[in-house]
Amino acid sequence: MSNAPNRPSGGTPSHAPGLKPPASSAPRTPAPARRPTSNPRLQRLASLDAFRGLAMLLMGAEVLHLCKVAAFFPDDPSWRFACEQQTHVAWRGWSAHDLIQPAFTFAVGSALAFSLANRRARNQTALASHVHAWSRAVVLVVMGIFLRSLRSDTTQFTFVDTLTQIGLGYGLAFTLACRPVRDQWIALVVILGAYWGAFALYPVPADGFDPTTVGVPADWEYTATGFEAHWNKNTNAASAFDRWFLNLLPREKPFEYQEGGYQTLNFIPTLGTMLMGLLVGGMIRSGTGSIAILVRLILFGAACVGAGYSLDHYGFCPLVKRIWTPSFALFSGGCCAWILAALYLIVDALRLRFLAFPLIVIGMNSIVMYWMNWTMDDFVLRAFRTHVGPDFSTAFGTEYETLVSGGAVLLTYWLIVFWMYRRKILVRI
Q1: Would you say 309 and 94 are in contact if contact means Cβ atoms under 8 Å apart?
Q2: What totals of helices (H) and strands (E) does the chain contain, helices first?
Q3: Greater pLDDT, 12 or 404
Q4: DSSP readout, 329-357?
Q5: Nearest Cα to 237, choosing from 267, 202, 210?
Q6: Is 258 left (phi over 0), alpha (psi -120 to 50) or beta?
Q7: Between the CA atoms of 37, 39, 40 and 45, what dihedral angle is there, to the nearest 10 degrees?
Q8: Torsion sign over Cα 61, 66, 68, 72
Q9: DSSP 54
Q10: Whether residue 162 has pLDDT greater than 90
Q11: Of 15, 87, 229, 297, whose CB count within 10 A is highest?
């Protein structure tokens, strides 16, 4: 704002033009500068940063290799439990590790609600917003393929990791974020319902089919019969799509099946997870008060968890993360809503930000943390062995070696993003 005195806004001048004002007239003083007002609905949500940071921390914690530690203590149930929670289930069911990708995806959707509001507040045109969103989607897919190809001699055209899955659905999620909330609910139901129908209508293999031809052991305990067989590993609708689609791209050898059972079309129900995050972000932005927001999030989570579990329990749709079944999308989305509600209570409602500060630091530069997890583990470990000592990780015994080495890596990453946080360096796509 200019420091020059304000001109009279109108009316008759107090003295003739070109003449000095009367001596008795007090000189006008500049109007005090107005302090910019901040709209709480547009501010960055600290609990969402903490939520994103929690997902990234659990992803990065793979470097701790808890199962290797648990192997030294076969009779200790706590270590066995820790190992189970850091391992993806083989097929049906879930563990804490299975909720990491849904949490990151859910956070993307929730952040969309705030991002779109900020763009509108800046009067950004709809065209510019959509161009940026779809450009971001392309960048995410390219980044995912690049990281997946780091340890390969050729480009690995796979689309099942976190970044590519989010990228494939992000543009559509942004488009739906521009629509009324009613349309977002309708889209969620249609997406999950249509995806369920595609699997249910796809024919199961004929009698005598050899599952080993698609990488499934003949006596695998997770092979279902009856209606649930439509969601069996590598014989479902999405696996058939990949056998066509992935062979259209350059490959060293023809694609037959994905060893883990993950599929490209997972991005469709993953879009549903993003929409659930978007809806929850809208609930938080509603400005109806902390208690009302918490009640909404808890009820939303309960409805989603109940629906997902019921679909699995009554045999309508098994709960499988590896093919992101609609039941898993609902169940994991509900769990994410509950976790975000807990963090919202602690960080934003009770203002106990310090309790989640380490997570907030990670969440504000989550993409940096993601890249470091993919690219720097070996480099950081070599640096510790060079400058601290080759045996630094066995200082507390060989059984805790991966805890010490992995902890050193995680601490290094956190210090890097903390340095960026202190200097207000935020990396965005």
Answers
A1: no
A2: 15, 0
A3: 404
A4: HHHHHHHHHHHHHHHIIIIIIS--GGGGH
A5: 202
A6: beta
A7: -100
A8: positive
A9: H
A10: yes
A11: 297
pLDDT at residue 33 is higher than 70: no
- Identify which of 326, 109, 138, 142 has the alpha carbon closest to the alpha carbon of residue 238: 326
Cβ atoms 260, 229 nearer than 8 A: no
Helix axes 290-313, 326-343, angle to 10 degrees: 150
pLDDT band at 179 (very low <50, low <70, confident <90, very high): very high
Distance separating alpha carbons of residues 203 and 339, to the nearest angstrom: 38
> For 301-342, what is each residue's pLDDT tens digit?
999 999 999 999 999 999 999 999 999 999 999 999 999 999
| From 86-100, 115-129, 259-273, 311-325, the region with the lowest mean pLDDT | 115-129
* Rg, the chain, Cα only: 27
The identity of residue 246, as a single letter, is L
Euclidean distance between CA atoms 97 and 87, whole angstroms: 6
Give yes or no for a contact between 223 and 233, defined as CB atoms under 8 angstroms apart. yes
Residue 53 · residue 103 · CB < 8 Å: no
The torsion region of residue 12 among left (phi > 0), alpha (psi -120 to 50) and beta comes to beta
User: Cα dihedral angle (233, 236, 239, 243), rounded to 10 degrees?
Assistant: 120
DSSP-derived letter for residue 325 is -
Q: What is the pLDDT of residue 23?
A: 46
What is the C-alpha to C-alpha distance for residues 24 and 203, in angstroms, rounded to an integer?
96
User: Scanning the structure block, which residue is given the tokens 């093919």?
Assistant: 323
With tokens 């393929």, the residue in question is 145
Query: For residue 392, which of 379, 376, 405 has the smallest C-alpha distance?
Result: 405
pTM: 0.89
